[in-house]
Write a structure and sequence with these properties.
It is a single chain. The protein is mostly helical. The chain has one domain (2-134). The protein contains six helices and no strands. It has helices at residues 2-10, 30-37, 59-66, 72-81, 88-98, 123-134. It is rod-shaped, with a radius of gyration of 46 Å. One of its GO terms (cellular component) is nucleolus. This is Active regulator of SIRT1.
Amino acid sequence: SLLRRGLELLEPPGRAKVPPGLQRGRTGPRAAGAARRRKRAPEPGRNKATVKGRVVKSAIEEYHKKKPVNHLRENLQYMLKGRLVADKAVTEQVLAQNRGRKSKDQPPEKTEKKKPKGTVFTEEDFRKFEREYFGVP
């Protein structure tokens, strides 16, 4: 019925529509069963048993179609295109939220290395001190 409605929509506007009761002349309960039992006439389409009209597919072309494609270059360009770097504090916060609460999940705390303090005195000051204290000329 859907196909019939679709065909009615597609038919040219000049043709008059046939009322549904007079469509094919079939009436009664046996008409539907007879139509089902009637064998379909072979359609004048292509005979599948013959080779005529068949397009030979190249095995090489089929292989190239199914060959995996390397998308590395496009992916790299996509990744490098948006160089939006998040703030250091935000990234630390996100990493802290994704970390577990156990001590084994926590990263080791970084201890700041103490720089050895240099002397305030220069070599000249030491020589001057030696002369004054020890009396060395």
